[in-house]
């Protein structure tokens, strides 16, 4: 039997009805899901709602997880799909940057450094929310999840060339948007 710390063992036990195994699995991956949803939506509350939706859906469909697959990739794919669904059903006038990411690194030494870092994070989150959802997803998976183009293509069931095209289009758009804010050189 696999060790309890292994995702597959936790999944097996959760499918058998173990609440503690399910809670451990959620605890292990909640930050990953939340951060992915936050970067996709740019809104803390929306990310929390999406995280809850994702884990409710995962729990209901845990039996569909292929034991030979990568649980993290499966979870990211579900999260990405939920985010895309969120954008499809969102009202057009919704302000996606109501609560931007304002994470301040713990190694900040001065209030000025903390303010600058917070302002930069807010600007980046604001600019990311201006990308279309497909481009935002590719940027999120490439930069924040450190996936390769091939991994993104597999995860999203989109060709590698299309992923690369979206990625480079997103970079061009980001550069233009940052230039508007006088950030890029």
Assign the CATH topology of the largest domain: Rna Polymerase Sigma Factor, Chain: A
The pLDDT mean sits at 80
List SSEs in N-to-C order.
HHHHHHHH
The proportion of residues forming helix, as a percent range, comes to 55-70%
**Which architecture name of the largest domain does CATH use?**
Orthogonal Bundle
Work out the count of structural domains.
2
Radius of gyration: 18 Å
CATH C-level class of the largest domain is Mainly Alpha
C-alpha geometry: globular
Task: Provide a concise account of the structure shown.
The protein is mainly α. The protein has eight helices and no strands. The termini are far apart.
Structure description:
With 185 residues, the protein is mainly α. It folds into two domains: 1-92, Rna Polymerase Sigma Factor, Chain: A (Orthogonal Bundle); 110-185, Arc Repressor Mutant, subunit A (Orthogonal Bundle), CATH 1.10.10.10. 69% of the residues lie in helices and 0% in strands. It is built from eight helices and no strands. It is globular.
Tags for this model:
single chain; about 180 residues; mainly alpha; Rna Polymerase Sigma Factor, Chain: A; Arc Repressor Mutant, subunit A; 2 domains; 8 helices; about 70% helix
């Amino acid at each position: 039997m696999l060790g309890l710390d292994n995702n597959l063992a936790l999944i097996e036990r959760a499918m058998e009805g173990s609440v503690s195994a399910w809670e451990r699995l959620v605890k292990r991956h909640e930050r990953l899901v939340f951060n992915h949803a936050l970067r996709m939506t740019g809104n803390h509350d929306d990310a929390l709602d999406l995280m809850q939706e994702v884990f409710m859906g995962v729990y209901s469909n845990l039996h569909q997880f292929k034991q030979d697959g990568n649980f993290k990739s499966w979870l990211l794919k579900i999260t990405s799909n939920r985010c895309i669904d969120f954008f499809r059903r969102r009202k057009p006038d919704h302000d996606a940057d109501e609560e931007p990411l304002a994470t301040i690194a713990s190694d900040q030494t001065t209030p000025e450094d903390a303010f600058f870092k917070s302002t930069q994070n807010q600007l980046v989150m604001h600019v990311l929310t201006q990308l279309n959802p497909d481009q935002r997803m590719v940027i999120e998976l490439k930069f924040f999840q450190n996936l390769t183009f091939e991994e993104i293509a597999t995860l999203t069931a989109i060709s590698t060339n299309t992923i690369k095209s979206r990625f480079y289009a997103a970079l061009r758009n980001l550069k233009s948007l940052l230039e508007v804010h006088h950030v890029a050189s």
